[in-house]
């Protein structure tokens, strides 16, 4: 038996030839109803959020929750030498009940808004992510009532920086990616723009020589990677040993002494993120396939029952039996048989089962608006008129 391709209609039904069989197993080929997939995507997204909720912070977030470390990174980016951490106002989104988003780090300094994100995977959608983040931060700074003033507000100059330390090839050293790159249609003069400075902090990136905390962070990352990728150690062991070595080498000593257990916990997710995502995605896909198979089996049984009924009615119509007699012989209510009977009569002399099924799907007057019902009756009237001519 060969697998049959199922084409789902917008009504959630599928088109199935009367002579076809379907194989519901791992080899099934199908084009799925968009609404069905959307329901599955919502379910998958909810489960993914549940998994991610346990790991709201990564090591980068934890490290740069400290104002002194933020100021260190700011000075490295701007070749400056600010010393007073009290001048820095943290605006990092914490994902609380009234805010939808959580970002890695952001702060205000001298009417400049800096937003930092650390990425261990390639993500060309960072401009759109930052657009979400900066909108929430601006809402924090400027209430809705202030937007209606007659005088012009002065807002901080935004700066968006992504620090990339993934193993996948993406940015060589440094590159600007723009929101307009994501537009469906190219425009020479976009009416809205957002530029993100992406800095590759792997290897011997220049900024590592200017920012000790970032260099120390990457030392920890490289130690962990070496232990997992080269020495083939599990993530927990690798992270634990990397922390011990860093402390011995006077790297982020205070940070690791304060956050040791938390660093181990978040790193298990942070450094094995792709594998975690693949496992979660695979589990969700398997569950989605099982649920879809069950629904398809129910629909298939109903469709096969309808096909069998249509074929029986066709045979009896060819013998010129009335709808009442057919209903009696099939032990069905006449009201249930009549739509099938009428569709069979209209399909003569070809009696194409697929066409009859299609018409029966369309004839569900119970779901039609009055206008749709009248239009359908008008179509039937024309079909009958053409047949009688």
> Helix amount, in percent?
40-55%
N-to-C span? 45 Å
Q: Which assembly state applies to the chains in this document?
A: single chain
Provide the succession of SSEs.
EEEHHHEEEHEEEHHHHHHHH
Strand order of the largest sheet: 4-5-6-7-9-8
Number of helices: 12
Give Rg in angstroms: 32 Å
Give the rounded overall mean pLDDT.
79
Low-pLDDT parts are 1-37, 40-56
Shape: elongated
Largest beta-sheet characterization: 6 strands, mixed
**β-strand number:** 9
Structural class: alpha/beta
Task: Work out the strand percent.
Answer: 5-15%
How are the secondary structure elements laid out?
Elements: E1 6-8, E2 14-15, E3 30-31, H1 34-53, H2 59-63, H3 67-78, E4 89-90, E5 105-109, E6 112-119, H4 126-141, E7 157-164, E8 174-178, E9 195-200, H5 212-230, H6 235-248, H7 253-270, H8 273-318, H9 323-329, H10 334-347, H11 353-362, H12 370-388
Parallel strand pairs: 1-3, 6-7, 7-9
Antiparallel strand pairs: 1-2, 4-5, 5-6, 8-9
Helix pairs in contact: 1-8, 5-6, 6-7, 8-10, 9-10, 10-11
């Amino acid at each position: 038996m060969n697998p049959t391709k199922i084409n789902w209609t917008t009504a959630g039904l599928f088109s199935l030839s009367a002579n076809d069989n379907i194989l519901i197993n791992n080899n099934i080929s199908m084009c799925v109803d968009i609404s069905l997939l959307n329901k599955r995507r919502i379910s998958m997204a909810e489960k993914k959020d549940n998994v991610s909720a346990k790991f709201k912070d990564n090591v980068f977030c934890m490290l740069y929750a400290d104002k002194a470390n933020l100021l260190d990174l700011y000075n490295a980016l701007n070749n400056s030498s600010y010393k007073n951490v009290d001048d820095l106002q943290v605006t990092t989104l914490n994902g609380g009940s009234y805010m939808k988003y959580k970002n890695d780090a952001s702060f205000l300094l001298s009417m400049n808004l800096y937003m930092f994100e650390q990425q261990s995977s390639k993500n060309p959608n960072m401009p759109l992510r930052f657009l979400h983040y900066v909108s929430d931060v601006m809402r924090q700074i400027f209430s809705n009532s202030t937007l209606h003033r007659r005088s012009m507000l002065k807002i901080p100059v935004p700066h968006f920086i992504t620090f990339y330390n993934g193993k996948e090839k993406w940015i060589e050293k440094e590159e600007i990616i723009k929101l307009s790159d994501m537009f469906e249609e190219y425009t020479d003069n976009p009416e809205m723009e957002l530029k993100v400075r992406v800095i590759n902090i792997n290897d011997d990136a220049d900024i590592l020589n200017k920012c000790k905390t970032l260099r120390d962070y990457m030392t920890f990352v490289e130690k962990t990677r070496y232990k997992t990728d080269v020495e083939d150690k599990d993530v927990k062991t690798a992270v634990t040993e990397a922390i011990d070595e860093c402390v011995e080498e006077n790297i982020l000593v205070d940070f690791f002494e304060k956050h040791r257990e938390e660093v181990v916990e978040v790193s298990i997710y942070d450094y094995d993120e792709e594998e975690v995502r693949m496992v979660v995605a695979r589990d969700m896909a398997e569950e989605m396939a099982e649920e879809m198979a069950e629904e398809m089996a129910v629909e298939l049984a109903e469709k096969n029952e309808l096909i069998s009924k249509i074929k029986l009615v066709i045979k009896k119509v060819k013998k010129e039996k009335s709808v009442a007699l057919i209903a009696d012989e099939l032990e069905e209510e006449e009201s249930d048989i009549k739509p099938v009977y009428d569709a069979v009569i209209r399909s003569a002399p070809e009696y194409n089962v697929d066409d009859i099924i299609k018409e029966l799907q369309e004839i569900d007057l119970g779901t039609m608006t009055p206008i749709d019902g009248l239009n359908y009756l008008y179509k039937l009237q024309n079909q009958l008129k053409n047949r009688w001519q």
